[in-house]
Amino acid sequence: MHALDEIFALRDRDSELTIAEHTTDTAGFTDLLFGAYDVVGLLFCPRIRDLADQRLWLPHDSTPPKLVAPLVANRATVEPILACWDDLLRLGASIHEGEVLPSLLLTKLQAFPRQNALARALQDYGRLVKTLFILRYLQRPEMRKRVGRQLNKGENLNGLRETVYFAHLGQIRHRQLIDQTAQALCVTLVVNCIAAYNAGLLSPAVHRLRAAGFEIDDTDVSHAGPTMSEHILVHGRYRYDLDRPPKELRPAPIPQHDSTRRLRRAEPDPESVP
C-alpha cells in the first residue's frame, strides 16, 4: 500500500524513472490494491503463493471457456462498478495529482463498512483485474521471470542491509524508540550511499567492457542492481565530512575471473571489414 506513496513521490520529484509496474510478494496483495493500481494506470504484479488455490472472478452474465470453467468459483456484479465508475476515475485522478496520499485513501476505504458503495466497487473491480493478471501470469513465462527478477532485487537489497548492519549480529539493542529509529536511519543512509556509489560505477564499467570488445546486451544491463558489496570494506570507522569537496569516482576495474570469461567478445561484422 505504501509503495504507491513512494512511486508518486518519485514522480513529484521530477525523476527520470518511468515506473509502469510494481511487484511484491504474496503478503502484499489484496483485491483492493489490484483495483487501485489499475485506476492509476500501473500494473500490479504480485507473486502469489499457492496460485493453484486462487479462484477466478468473472462478470455474473458471462460464460467462461471450458478450459477455465473449473477455476471460476465466484461472480462479480458489474452494476456497482458501473454506478461508481466516475468516482473510481476521480480516485485515480486525485492520486495522480497529489491531492491525497494513496495509503491514507486506501486505509480509509478498507475501514468503511462493507456496504460502502465506492469501497465495494473498487474491490469488485480489483477482483476482475486480479483474474486477468492470473491468466496472463500463467500463460506468459517471460512475465513470471520478470516478476521473479524484480523480487530478487529486493532480496539483494535486504542482503546489503545485513552486510552493513554487522554490529551486535544485526540486533537492535536500544530501548528507546528514538534511538531505535536513529539506528535504522543510519543503516538506511549507509545503504543508500553504497547504492548511489555502485550506480555511478555501473555505466562506466559497461562502457569499458564494450570498448574492450565484450558483448553486453541492454536487457542484461537492466537486470543489474546497485546492491553488490563484495568490493566494499564495511568494517572500520565511518567519517562524514560535509565540508570536504567530493572527489571523482575511480574507474571500475574489469575483474579477471569466471564471470568475465563468460562474456563473449564481439566479432566484427564481415560487411564492415574493408
Describe the structure.
The protein has 274 residues and is mostly helical. The chain contains ten helices and four strands. Helix 2 (31-39) packs across helix 6 (117-139) and helix 7 packs across helix 8. The chain is globular. The relative contact order is 0.09.
What's the gist of this structure?
The protein is mainly alpha-helical and 274 residues long.
In total, how many domains does the architecture comprise? 2
Count of alpha/pi helices: 10
Q: Major sheet: size, sense and barrel closure?
A: 2 strands, parallel
Helix content: 40-55%
Radius of gyration: 24 Å
Unreliable runs: none
Beta-strand fraction estimate: 5-15%
Which structural category fits the helices and strands? mainly alpha
Distance between the termini: 59 Å
Number of strands: 4
The dominant shape is globular
Q: What order do the SSEs take from the amino end to the carboxyl end, as H and E? A: HEHEEEHHHHHHHH
| Nearest-integer average pLDDT | 81
Main sheet strand line-up: 1-2
Overview features:
274 residues, mainly alpha, two-stranded parallel sheet, 10 helices, 4 strands, globular
Strand and helix map with partners:
Layout: H1 2-12, E1 21-24, H2 31-39, E2 43-46, E3 56-59, E4 72-76, H3 78-83, H4 85-96, H5 102-111, H6 117-139, H7 141-164, H8 177-211, H9 218-222, H10 258-261
Parallel strand pairs: 1-2, 3-4
